[in-house]
Amino acid sequence: MPPVDRQAIGDLYLRHHSWVVNLLRNKLGDREQALDLAQDTFVRLLRSELPAHLREPRAYLATVAGRLCLQHFRRQALERAYLDSLARLDPLLQPSEETRLLVLEALDAVGQILDGLGKRVREVFLLSQLDGLAYAEIAEQLGLTVNMVQKDMLKAYRHCYAAVYGQ
Question: Which of 9, 115, 124, 130 has a CA-to-CA distance to 55 between 20 and 30 Å?
C-alpha cells in the first residue's frame, strides 16, 4: 500500500471536519457522538488508501462517515440484544462487566465480518451455522438449489477465513 498523504488528509480535515460533524449530528442526534465518529472518519482515511485526487471530497467523506454510523447503530443493536438477554438471566449467573465487554467486542467483530457477505450468502451461512439447518433444508426454505447453497457456504467460509487470517 502506498504511503498515506497526511498533508492531503490534513487539508480535508481543516476544510470539511465541521461539515462531517454536522452530517453525523443530524444522523445521530448527539453532538459528542458525532464528534467521535467524525474523528474516526479521518482516522479511517489515515489508515486507508486515499485516492490521489478527490473530485467530490464531501461525497467521499459522507460515504466513510455513513459506514461508520451504520457500524455504530449495528453495535448499539447488538449491545441492546445482548443486555436484554442478560436481563433474563438469574442474577447469580450474570457475567462480570469485563466478560460483558469481551462478549460485546466479539459480537461486534463477528458482525463486521458478516457485513462483508452478500445478503443471501449471509442468510445461508446463518441458517447453517446458527439454526443448524442442512443444506437441503436451507435450499427449500430459500427457494435455491442445494448446489447454490453449497456455493454460498463456500463463499462464506472463504470470506471468514480471509477476515480472520488475512488471506
Answer: 115
